[in-house]
Amino acid sequence: MRKQIIQYTSSLDALIAIAKRLSIYENQHKMDSEDFFNKYNQGKLSDDAIFIEWANDYRHYIALHQELQERLNNVAA
User: Fold this and answer.
1) Integer angstrom CA distances of residue 61 from 1, 4, 47, 67
2) What is the spatial distance between Cα 52 and Cα 2, in angstroms, rounded to a whole number?
3) What share of the chain is helix, strand, coil (3-state, %, to 5)?
4) How far, CA to CA in Å, does 20 sit from each of 25, 33, 44, 47, 77?
5) Which pTM does this prediction carry?
6) CA gap 38, 53 in Å, rounded
7) Over the stretch 10-51, which tens digit does the pLDDT of each residue have?
């Protein structure tokens, strides 16, 4: 499987793109990303490529969300 590198002009654009991908995973597997990630980390799901990608996207989503939240808090302060 060949990976594609996508560069975004802002963290918000990246967050939106990842949220869209997470939504696709959630619809396909009838499970929200937080529940999936908890089960995946507990070893209750396999290490299939799709689950690895989903877990990585969810980690990236969380990191971007925290980064943007911190920026907003700094602006509000």
Assistant:
1) 22, 18, 20, 10
2) 15
3) 75, 0, 25
4) 9, 12, 25, 22, 31
5) 0.87
6) 15
7) 989 999 999 999 999 999 999 999 999 999 999 999 999 999
